[in-house]
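Why run this: before we spend reagent on co-expression, it is cheaper to look at a predicted model of the complex and decide which construct boundaries make sense. The entries below are exactly what would go into the expression plan.
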Amino acid sequence: MAQKIAIRDAFGAALKKLGAVNDKVVVLEADVGSSTKSGLFGKEFPERYFNVGISELDMVAMSAGFATTGLIPFCNTFSVFLAGRGGDPINSLICYDNLNVKLCGTYCGMSDSYDGASHNAMSDMAFIRSLPNMTLISVCDAVETEKAVFAAAQIDGPVYLRLSRAPAEVIFDDSYDFQVGKGVTLTQGNDITIVATGYMVQKSLEAAKLLEADGIKARVVDIHTIKPIDRELIVKCAQETGAIVTAEEHSIYGGLGSAVSEVIVEECPVPMGFIGTDGFGESGDYEELLSKYKMDGKAIAAKAKEVLAKKK
Amino acid sequence: MPMTKERKQELDQLCHQFRVELIELLHSIQTGHPGGSLSCCEILTALYFEKMHIDPKNPKAPDRDRLVLSKGHAAPMLYLNLAHKGFFPVEDMKTLRQINSDLQGHPCAHKTPGVEVSTGPLGLGLSAGNGIALGAKLNGYDYTTYVLMGDGEIQEGGIWEAAMTAVKFKVDNLVAILDHNHVQLDGTNDEIMPMGDISAKWKAFGWNVIECDGHDVAAFSDAVDAAKAHKGQPTIIICETVKGKGISFMEGKNTWHGAPINDENYANAMKELGGNA
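The model came back. Tokens follow.
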């Protein structure tokens, strides 16, 4: 079994590493620094670390002010609070003026599993994706996380980085050429494409193995940048495989599935299926929850077969 | 240094001119917010024409003073100041709130030179100001950040989040200003959401509080000097003002928060201001 590293640990380490090479980086936190791991940066660079307490609205609006002075603020809290409580200034200050703020939402999806539905972030991508000027990145492993942190700092404009709490299998090695807006094909196959993001990438790789046992060759694609989405790759997959399943730890409304279908209906309509939620979650063991809410390898494989049956 | 009598007269004259131009403008376009623009006329004029270190020819100079108009609906009075200061042509004022204009209904930093932060949704400007002011310290500049808020606006919880943040991080290079005109859109503060002892509230949050007459440019100017001299904690200047100041039938009336000015009201307002309708 592949090595597992928690995304949040990789994120905290990457932020600290970035701080050492870029003195324009300032980090804001809303009292969950030991959870988001932004505290690692704070320990190293206390003069550039601003823990504002439990006040997400203030933190996000303050980061907009920092950005107007040429600094590069990274805002940290749980995804559900960042997009929810911080939503107004994300829209009206940061995106409207195209400010150089990095919004890092950790504990995405159901990854804060025992805390229950109130702490799930299942709608953040729908809101964030609809905002002009925004880049939305959702990472799947520790390597992609570090590369995404450094790539985000290079973008002159708002970035939302969607991060999980969960220990994730390490899929990539250091040679990985991460490019914002460019998806990555992980397995070859021409029967169907599984387009996945975040923690669902490893679940999709599991699904591909299950399908292979049944003689179905699935192509698995990691779409880490939900916005701007890799249209070219998605069209190519539709043309070459003729069927697509999207897999995301998010509502089926407004996230990856919607983004992919927007491309598909315009460019190359093929049968599609959606893995994600349509309702609230609950407390429990993370892996058990993912299975219950049909976001595991088995569910993805079953959805793939359902879609394959519609393929002409 | 206290303001000379001559300088006060000049600034009062300028404020009078801005009131006339505001009424003419809002009458001509039949949209915009007169009440809250008139209450902060002296505050903005004293800042832009007396206190702030700014250069319209170099609006992005890194050491410039910044103003965040957190009560963004007072945009017309901000734009009058910026236009007469030379940030853009005065004739552009007539495009306010019209399609294809750089002068939006609420301040827009990426369209209008001199606007530092886009505002409109209330309660965000103080937080943004904290970031700008702390950015000054990190970047090694000694500019001052001014944040002008409305008294209805401070009903927003985010203002008090920012109030705590400013104290924790000793944001003493920021001067908050409250346009305390006692009236908001639906009625008076007392009717809609009683604010209690506003001064005591800010003091309890750890702020240095200065109170002054917000329609006296000299008194306000002195208050700004005192605020800038105060170190170790942030300062708020609570300006006692009148909503709709200068037009008797608008004064203290919530109905003039954002109402269009009809021909009759326009004629009466201009008569009071000594101009020609």
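The mean pLDDT of chain B is 96. DSSP finds ten helices and seven strands in chain B. Bring this page to Monday's planning discussion.
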